């Protein structure tokens, strides 16, 4: 199988490396050429001149971009190279409706589409242990499996195109709410005068244990938030979630309460930090210790 | 070493069984005699006639009761049997101040005290894999270790008496906030028409992974909340947390927003269910599906 990647960001770049380790990486492209050049140097695989060239060279094409408009732009740009043997697996986080739109544009060119957003952080992308939330036809997923298995430890098919993104929305709501629980609890622990490194270690071994505490607990208490998932991208995802909830007449009070706190973080210049930077806000719930 | 247990509830009973498996269980007592009789039948160890008899027979005495007043009552009742070789390890969840009061009463009798609240659920109590959050003197903890190791997978010493309870408060704040994140996210997923068993399995493998989703995800979506941590006990713990936060001039907005939801659950007759019953409330954020 020949696989390609479009979008070599914090997630896409290590995913491409794992495809290369599996012997599958045939082509790739990135909007900022420097990232593609770095990957070419690291793998010996040549960068493509444009998205259509990646599509033409691949059976499975993984896209991993930041926003809904970026995805549709990339889909349109790769269409000239699309063919009946091509399956585009979009690992970006976009609205379910955007996934359905992408699938439709590719269908006209005879190519297949799966929405395959992922979770597991940059660590999961590096280790190839991501969780893939797939939406689309089972037969297409089966064909795409060798590529998806090279980047993940678990793949779930949740339903038709869009179901992967709906599940990713569930995932993001949960991640944000957990981030709030952890950062508010640790701010409380700080106010109690506890040694937070020890608290993180003992609490993570019990019923409050969670990925976020395991991977961000020790760094967030030092305001080290450079590695991880950018706050401004989480806000983009959560805005999608709130829109999806409202579209069915519902609401997400926990997320609606969180968004102003994240927006304040962005205004204060922390938008490119991991969302564990929320601890900066939660600390202010307590008077500063002497 | 001879160990004893006072309080054979959902946590205390399996903890006593693990002490017995380690060859340490010498005595025990429970307010409701039937539980003590059941443990005597299961272990062949005789139940004591009163708390003082347990204290007299032990070097390490684990107490595991439901509320602050119960703990101080048990401490007073065991004092006639207290001796210089005795360490009381209180695994209940109470206020840090109550732990300090218990330590003082025992000190007058020459006995030692550690606050050693635990986390890990009834599953952790059964498997002997609890996380112990200890407060008190390191030398006492070292002496008590054989008994605590029989019930736990991890023991952390957080500081002087009361520090274990302060850390348990951090733990409960985190547990409750995670419970809210998970139940609100799954209510959203239900409204999106997703198959929630599949969602639980794929989401738990990513960055939203957490103990609560692992152990309560598949049951909460069926309103099966019989096993676990009773909502009314979590409310009792969270009231302590809010009081502790206010005592230092702080606040816990996430918990203050959750408490009315839990109280509503109790009013509706779900107080003895695991707090994953919160999903019953969160479902109402979305109009019922056809």
Automatic annotation (TrEMBL), chains A, B:
Active site: 168
Annotated GO MF terms: NAD binding; NADP binding; oxidoreductase activity
Annotated keywords: NAD, Oxidoreductase
Record domain 6-phosphogluconate dehydrogenase NADP-binding: where: 3-157
3-hydroxyisobutyrate dehydrogenase-like NAD-binding domain residues: 162-280
UniProt-listed GO biological process terms: organic acid catabolic process
InterPro entries per the UniProt record, alphabetical: 3-OH-isobutyrate_DH-rel_CS, 6-PGluconate_DH-like_C_sf, 6PGD_dom2, 6PGDH_NADP-bd, HIBADH-like_NADP-bd, HIBADH-related, NAD(P)-bd_dom_sf
Family classification: Belongs to the HIBADH-related family.
Protein name: 3-hydroxyisobutyrate dehydrogenase
Organism: Plasticicumulans acidivorans
Classification lineage: Bacteria, Pseudomonadati, Pseudomonadota, Gammaproteobacteria, Candidatus Competibacteraceae
């Amino acid at each position: 199988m020949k696989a390609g990647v479009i979008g070599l960001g914090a997630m896409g770049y290590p995913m491409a490396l794992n495809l290369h380790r599996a012997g599958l990486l045939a082509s790739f492209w990135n909007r900022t050429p420097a990232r593609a050049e770095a990957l070419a140097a690291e793998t010996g695989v040549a960068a493509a001149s444009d998205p259509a060239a990646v599509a033409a060279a691949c059976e499975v094409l993984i896209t991993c971009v930041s926003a809904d408009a970026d995805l549709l732009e990339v889909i349109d740009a790769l269409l000239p190279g699309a063919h009946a043997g091509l399956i585009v697996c979009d690992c970006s986080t976009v609205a379910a409706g955007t996934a359905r739109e992408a699938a439709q544009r590719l269908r006209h060119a005879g190519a297949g589409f799966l929405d395959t957003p992922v979770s597991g952080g940059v660590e999961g992308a590096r280790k190839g242990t991501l969780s893939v939330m797939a939406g689309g036809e089972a037969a297409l997923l089966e064909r795409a499996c060798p590529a998806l298995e090279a980047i993940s430890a678990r793949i779930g098919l949740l339903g038709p195109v869009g179901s992967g993104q709906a599940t990713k929305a569930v995932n993001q709501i949960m991640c944000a709410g957990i981030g709030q629980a952890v950062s508010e609890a640790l701010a409380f622990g700080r106010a109690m005068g506890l040694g937070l490194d020890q608290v993180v270690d003992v609490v993570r071994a019990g019923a409050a244990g969670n990925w976020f505490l395991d991977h961000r607990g020790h760094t967030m208490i030092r305001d080290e938030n450079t590695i991880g998932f950018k706050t401004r991208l989480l806000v983009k995802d959560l805005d999608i979630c709130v829109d999806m909830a409202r579209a069915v007449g519902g609401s997400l009070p926990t997320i609606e309460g969180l968004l102003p706190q994240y927006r304040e973080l962005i205004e204060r210049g922390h938008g490119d930090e991991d969302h564990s930077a929320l601890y900066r806000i939660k600390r202010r719930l307590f008077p500063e210790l002497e």
